[in-house]
Amino acid sequence: MGNSSAFWLGLAVAVAVLAALPALFGLYAAEVGAVFLAYALLGMSLAFIWGYCGILSFGQVAFFGVAGYAFGIIAINATTLTGLTLALLASIAVSTAFAAALGYFMFYGGVRDVYVTILTLVVALVLYTFMGQTAGGEWSVGDARLGGFNGMSGVPDLAVGIGSTGVEIGLLGHYYVTLGALVVTYLGLRALVNSQFGYAMIATREDEDRTAMFGYDTTFIKLVVFTIGGAIAGLGGVLFTTQNNYVDPSVFGITAAALPVVWASVGGRTSLIGTVGAALAIQFVDYRLALSGSEWALVVIGSLLVFVVLVMPEGIAPRLHEYVLESREDADSSPVPPDPPAAAEEVSD
Amino acid sequence: MTGAGLLNFGFEFVEIFAFIVLATVGLAVIFGMMGIINLAHGEFILVGAYATTFTFAAGLPLPLAMLTGVVLTAVYGLVLERLIVRHLYGRLLDSMVVTWGISLVMIQLTRIVFGNTAPGIGIPFGQLPIVDGPVYYLVLAAVAVGVLGGLYALFMWTEFGIRARATMQDEATARSMGVDTDRMYMSTFAVGSGLAGLAGALYAPVMTVTPEYGTGFLVEAFVAVVVGGASVLVGTVLASGLLGTVNAAVTNVAGTFMGQVAMLIAAIVAIRLMPDGITGVLADWRENRGESQ
């Protein structure tokens, strides 16, 4: 599926539909849609590290939120075009460095499996507590007040440029920038998981000790993957914060931390597209429910998670993929159904 | 340090130690005996707290209300184990994801059914002389020590304990020896749930009971389980002692929040030095000693 013309056609149609959304439903759809697309980036960062390298992080929101706060702090203090461009780059650098430091500490410290999962969650929860107690005036960096549970407001829009030449990205522009970032990140990750390095990642996921025996530095591989995941989550966080012009500690909270796990589990963690689709669909349903005044969104999301993991642990997209393969084999009715090469199947989307 | 300062530090330590032990022990029993990390641990605590506050508000005396909290949480855990968790034995990561889903549902359902606040309970027993704090914290510490002693007795001296430990060590052999391992898992999960409910019930008078009440226990519980390692009792006691000392010392000097931060830094350093937790180091040490003899 991953390389067939049908797949590329489907991808092109999906991107075209997403690109046409603001034209079809107006500016408001772009405003809401951009938030979902930023969430999709966050979900993709988890699918990448969990589905392809076996690192289950419950704290991807930590990088998402740290990048958001970092952008806010820098951007509020330097509202020039150059300043905003630097803020964009610096905030992604901050989340990347944070992921690298945490990853270094964990993976080179011999922390594995479930302990990684718990530590990442604890990091997110501690950031939540920390940001929550920054309400006082002493918690400000220059003009940027962290604001405790009230959050940091007045974060400027995204802008790119140097000196006086450049563009400030408005509402509609922001939607397309986010969509572009999502598509480019997806294509980049796809290329990465299909490369030599990608095979090493998957080998690490399948059996770390054996992969290490073959001479791969699995600790380094995990560190690199985790760091890339942190960078992507950070990119999502910046786009999220600039869309809302606001960030508050709830991005680190236990509910927010659960969402990426829900998207990746429901959509299928070994499918980047599946996770993106699940993120968009689930957040859309969540949004509609909230709009209609219903409080049941989290109950629905939580139950969906329990149901999917119990009934199809690998997620919806990989299950669909299997059905498609099976039905195609039946249609071919070739005497010997060709065995799909195992490795190719693991990385395909 | 003056006498009063020392006394304050001692009280701080007792308070934090009791909190970590009570917050952790239910999680540790389920993790250590069954290899399942229960992300809904906080919501089991929540069940205990709500059952306590509402039965107390309905006129039950406090100890009985707390007992109701414990029993209801144990029953609740039993039901959940039969319905969902038993499908997940041996699937550690899946079990974490599923229990997290359960946690989301429970927090939101609590909010829908009971609203954002619950009736309060006054702190019983009054204030201590000299150190600034309620007598109730000493009661909590006594209960924490009692729980640890009770668990030791349960797992070391009773028929049930032997069967449960056999199931944990080697399920296939235990079953071939006639142990109903399915039932062992079920009852261990109920014991763990009941202990979580106990934490919720005991802290209901001290902390404000809201739908997010359980989240307040999570950081301490997870950190202590990770630092402690797989051995339930020894790990919980040593980890609570270590983390409690660091937390109390820093809290005494720089306030509650810095105490928590210091505890986390201590935990990260501890995990860096002992990836398998304190009990992992103990196991290595025992092995080495065995070899040298």
From TrEMBL, chain A:
Region (Disordered): 328-349
Molecular functions per Gene Ontology: branched-chain amino acid transmembrane transporter activity
Domain of life: Archaea
Membrane topology qualifier: Multi-pass membrane protein
Keyword Ligase: no
Membrane-spanning residues: 7-30, 36-55, 62-80, 86-107, 114-131, 173-193, 214-240, 246-264, 296-313
Localization, UniProt: Cell membrane
GO CC terms, sorted: plasma membrane
Stored CDD domains: TM_PBP1_LivM_like
Keyword line: Cell membrane, Membrane, Transmembrane, Transmembrane helix
Pfam families: BPD_transp_2
Identification of the protein by name: Amino acid/amide ABC transporter membrane protein 2, HAAT family
Source organism per UniProt: Natronococcus occultus SP4
TrEMBL record, chain B:
The keyword Iron is assigned to this record: no
Pfam hit, one: BPD_transp_2
InterPro entries on file: ABC_transp_permease, ABC_UrtB_arc, BCAA_transport_permease
Biological process annotations from GO: amino acid transport
One GO CC term, this protein: plasma membrane
An annotated Gene Ontology molecular function: transmembrane transporter activity
Top-rank lineage group of the source organism: Archaea
Family: Belongs to the binding-protein-dependent transport system permease family. LivHM subfamily.
Protein known as: Amino acid/amide ABC transporter membrane protein 1, HAAT family
